[in-house]
């Protein structure tokens, strides 16, 4: 028996078989991860054939295909029948941004080839050790051909299809998404260019499972996924809150358009990336209102409460603050989704309330501020526009557009009489009642049928486990000896399930 520890380069296995076959005859390889947990085994005889027998043989075949999650993620042989997949998101910190000395901010890692080359080799070693089905990287130094070639070559040799997308205006870094050929085939791919103040971009992949998730290969249930990789703008100040929401809105709008064009209403969606905002932020609430679930929080049974808000971190930013900003969001097809524009308006109203409270305005004073010089006890449209300008939500190129303001007004003016009274102010802005996601199928049935939909069977995912590295960040602390990046890689294991959902009848 030969014991291998992770990470081990894939090309090493091919030569190892040949050498050991000639000298030993029958070889059994045991693959151990860095914690000593077995995550795979293979056995071959002297003729190069694989010996597989009974349930143990089936498990080995599953592990060879990457269909059984690592025991290091908390699973044993009893999971053999589940065809799980894994997904990793990681902001690898582009060398052009990595500061080597606090005293000299201009000294960057990109000026020292040995430094960035060694660090990125270690990053790839870790990625290949995990061998996730899907890898989403941010801040890849796409302006350096040597670094790009290294990622594409080593990931390609390990069986990955790689797709990259640079930020606009030659910012130097960008995104790289890798999908393992043993798990998925790429059906389609789109670049999403926001063309905004931050030159941010996103990747949209439409993939299909190579190995059927369901036991029956004749199943009519779609086994396809939409995957998004992105990196949102850093919130340097409160005026950028709207721009960050706009970036997410553009992503969800693109997904909706793609689903409509290809009639893909009943497939799961996975959003990966560095969202540059915590669980207390407006982006988190916006995505939650659309039915997306934070996979890490779901795996660890964390809620949206203040008590759970800081139990884990994934980033130490350039200001020295630590927070959780890296997410893998899951939207299953059985989730009821409110109209996208409604969620957007609610999120903007949330920003308005946040700014009003940050100015220490009480409920009554906030209403008076929005009313401005308007006569009577109601907020007028002109007074509303003036207040938004004073809150710095419209006074810059990436602020609210006239159309945005008009749609906000329509939603705030509940009775449509042209003014917003105190009660409407409370309902729309100060104490809004958000519609909750239905928790059971009976409620979903009622909602779905009212929306004019037909019932069908689809496939989605359960979150089996989620792990951040290094382990200290899962306890809300940042280890000083961690040097891979200023972000922690997040890996999530998903288990496919069949679920009832609805499709709108046009």
UniProtKB/TrEMBL annotation:
Residues 46-67 are annotated as: Disordered. PROSITE patterns: EF_HAND_1, EF_HAND_2. The keyword Calcium applies. Pfam families: Exo_endo_phos. GO terms for molecular function: 3'-5'-RNA exonuclease activity; calcium ion binding. Residues 400-435 form the EF-hand domain. It comes from Phoenix dactylifera (Date palm). Keywords: Calcium. The keyword Calcium applies. This is Uncharacterized calcium-binding protein At1g02270. Gene3D superfamilies: EF-hand, Endonuclease/exonuclease/phosphatase.
